[in-house]
Amino acid sequence: MEKNLEHRHEKHTAHYGIYILVWFALLILTGLTVTVAGINFGKLTVTAALLIASIKSYLVLTIFMHLRLEQKAFRVFIGIALFFIIISFVLLFADYTSYVR
Amino acid sequence: MSDINEQVVTHAHKDAIGARMGMWLFLFTELLLFGGMFFLYSVYRFTHQQDFHIAAKELNTLIGTFNTAILLTSSMTIALSIAAIQKGKVKLSIFLQVVTILLGIAFIVNKYFEWMHHINLGLYPGADELLSKGPGQILFFGLYYTMTGLHGLHVIVGACVIGTMTTFTIKGTITPDSYTKLEVAGLYWHLVDIIWIFLFPLFYLIT
Question: Which pTM does this prediction carry?
Fold first, then answer.
């Protein structure tokens, strides 16, 4: 089972094409985020910027950092780490928005 | 005898997963380090929206975009260098590692000119010029220097780590059969890239 996984890992990561494709996608998303920043969506501008940054990070995590091919435990760990970061942000702003302005 | 050899191989195989997991655990501590700063940034931006908007105009979007492209490209080259060593192409892998380091240096050089430009304008912590501006603008530049500075430090450390990996690859410590060290160094480099992916819109693209 483990050996099989390792085999899959090697087979997949040995392709150059996917990395060049992801690089291209990352550059396009960078262009998109700069363009979107020029248009005034009001409050949505920050949301759009963070959404694009999240998509870019997802590509880096899954493809460049090989998360797609790692054991499930890796994804569970990262999921937990991100969950607590997001919870902290939600609680922080639940507090701040209640009495600032 | 062959039994013992097999055991050694199995053990080394398991270590590779452990080594990657170890690096991921370290990356989580980095997430905490930068996460705290992102908390601080988000609260100050929320409480000083207008000042952040004015202060961000001092940053050059073009240089920021250029630096983003440099770092994204370096992430690709280090990923390709791992793919190359997996395919047994050691020389190509070394070349791609060197390109990654050079791109990292290019990023830092750009950052240096950017910082010097702001310092010459009197926009550094404690400068009279900056102190005459609104409190939010002072906070913005404080965060700008701290966060991009800490990130820049990570780029320098990352380039040094990859440089060590290049030496290992040349000396034959990293081989097509054993490249976990390079993989783990790559993980660190990609994290530095991800942090910049968030820093870039948050500092350069405030409208």
Answer: 0.89
Residues in chain B with CB shorter than 8 Å from the CB of A97 are 46
In this complex, do B197 and A40 lie within 8 Å of one another by their Cβ atoms?
A: no
List Cβ neighbours of A40 (8 Å cut-off, separation of 6 or more): B207
Nearest CA in chain A to B182: A65
ipTM: 0.88
For residue A81, give the chain B residue with the closest CA.
B28
- B86: nearest Cα among B166, B179, B188, B187: B179
Closest CA to B198 of A51, A72, A9: A51
Structure tokens at A69: 């091919």
Please list, in sequence order, all residues whose beta carbon lies within 8 angstroms of the beta carbon of residue B170, skipping any fewer than 6 positions away. B94
Per the structure block, which two tokens stand in for B112? 């240096």
Those residues whose C-beta lies under 8 Å from the C-beta of residue B142, and which sit 6 or more positions away, are B125
3-state secondary structure of B175: strand
Mutate to test the interface with B, among A60, A80, A86 (most CBs of B within 10 A): A60
What share of residues in chain A are helix, strand, coil (percent, to 5)?
85, 0, 15
Q: What is the pLDDT of residues B11-34, one digit of tens each?
A: 445 578 999 999 999 999 999 999
Residue B109 is classified by DSSP as H
